[in-house]
Amino acid sequence: MSRLWPRSLLGQVMLAVAVALLVAQAISAALLFRASEERREQHLVGTLAVQVTAAANLARSELRARGTPSPASRSMRRFRVEAGDAPPSSPADRAEPRVAAALGAVLAEQGVWGAGRVRVVSHPALRDPHVQRRLSRGLPMSHDFTGPDTRMMLASVPRQDGTWLTARTLAPPRDPHAFQGLVIQTAVMFGVLLLAIWLLLRRITRPLAAMTRRVEQFARTYNADGQLEPQGPDDIRRLIAAHNAMEARIAAMLDEKDVMLGAIGHDLKTPLAALRVRIESVEDDDERRRMAAGIEDITATLDDILTLARIGRASAPPERTDLSALAASVVEEFEDMGEDVALEDGPRLVAPVHVTWAKRALRNLIANAVRYGGGAVSVAALQEGNEAVLRVTDNGPGIPAGSLSAMTEPFTRGEASRNRGTGGAGLGLTLARAIAEQHGGSLVLANRPEGGLSAELRLPLA
């Protein structure tokens, strides 16, 4: 069902309105049909009531005048009423209890004897004996009896002498054009309302779609150039204007941040470089090495912080790159340093990436595995769906399940097996995650069932 539900605002509103109109028209059609049936029933009951009442009154008048009943008088025949010892019956008869109840109530109000025992049946008009006799004699008919749905209604009322009066009349036909008119009415309503709603929604959703694209572009580039002109209704115009102002403030703050970070980096690296020169005068070799390692640690941490702050402010667009070749070049760097890192065979994967950042992210994952894995590290480039996956696996102790999500936060470090003595400041995974998200991908960490950690850099192929 969710696949049939449109995802856009325009599609959802149009579908909701169409369904609402369809339901409303269905209810309206049901009510109209019910009212039409009630009118047909009232007309039918009225016709039968007039015939039965007139026949009953005529029979009483003749009885008083002659002293004996006249069950087949010509006056009765004028009213299409016949008298008999029992109500007419045929295998094609169908009981009509609703009509019988309504007719009985009317006859009771008129004081007709036997109103509580009214019997009403119907059968196809062409099966009625009176119609068949007239047709066999070639007599003209006042109605068309050839329709398959044309039915003759027979209402029988008992008399005091034990005989029955039976009135017959054609059931009023249903209007053959009623349904057609309802369909035309529904189509016109659908066309007019849906067109009006579509035009209104397009006026709203078009600037919203443009602003969505603009937000996605700004999230990638943080560049305030090319802002949207306010358009659409006043509410949408105010929203676009507020968004443009927010973009400008964010871009200004990012520029100020870059300037500030650049100044901080310069101001810190300069005294660190001077300090690195001064420690050469320290006579104790062990002390000099410890001091130099501390300065290098501070410099590396500062580089990581500056890199993390600059992610998302690339000056050049991503370029289509063979990720398998990129992974091979990074693995080769670690092999040259004598590390046990191997690249598994895999397909050729081409994706748009910032090469320097992608290498930095993969390098951080491999370095993390080499540092904490305690053995061979395996790197694989493979495709899963519409994503390219750069997977780094090790055979180390892994990460406690409750700490996996926290390990990508800045300056977060693991347990004792990942202490500061192993180096780093807890920014490697944070950088890898930020780089993956900047490309529209993700960093996925998981403990392997056979032991060790699996770190996946997932990047979209398009």
Plain-language structure description:
Residues 263-462 form the Histidine kinase domain. It is found in: Cell membrane. Its main location: membrane. It catalyses: ATP + protein L-histidine = ADP + protein N-phospho-L-histidine. It is an enzyme of class 2 (transferase). This protein has 462 residues and is an alpha+beta fold. It folds into 3 domains: 9-170; 259-308; 316-460, Heat Shock Protein 90 (2-Layer Sandwich). The chain is built from 10 helices and 12 strands. Strands 1-5-4-3-2 form a 5-stranded antiparallel beta sheet. Strands 7-9-10-12-11 form a 5-stranded mixed beta sheet. Strands 6-8 form a two-stranded antiparallel sheet. A hairpin with a 5-residue loop joins strand 4 and strand 5. The two termini are 29 Å apart. 21% of the residues are buried.
Keywords:
single chain, 462 residues, alpha+beta, Heat Shock Protein 90, five-stranded antiparallel beta sheet, five-stranded mixed beta sheet, 12 strands, 15% strand
Short description:
Helices cover 53% and strands 15% of the residues.
> What is the radius of gyration computed over CA atoms, rounded to a whole number of angstroms?
46 Å
- Beta-strand level of the residues, as a percent range? 5-15%
Order of helices and strands: HHEEHEHEEHHHEHEEHEEHEE
Largest beta-sheet details: 5 strands, antiparallel
Structural class: alpha+beta
Q: Fraction of residues in helices?
A: 40-55%
Average pLDDT figure: 81
Biggest sheet: strand arrangement: 1-5-4-3-2
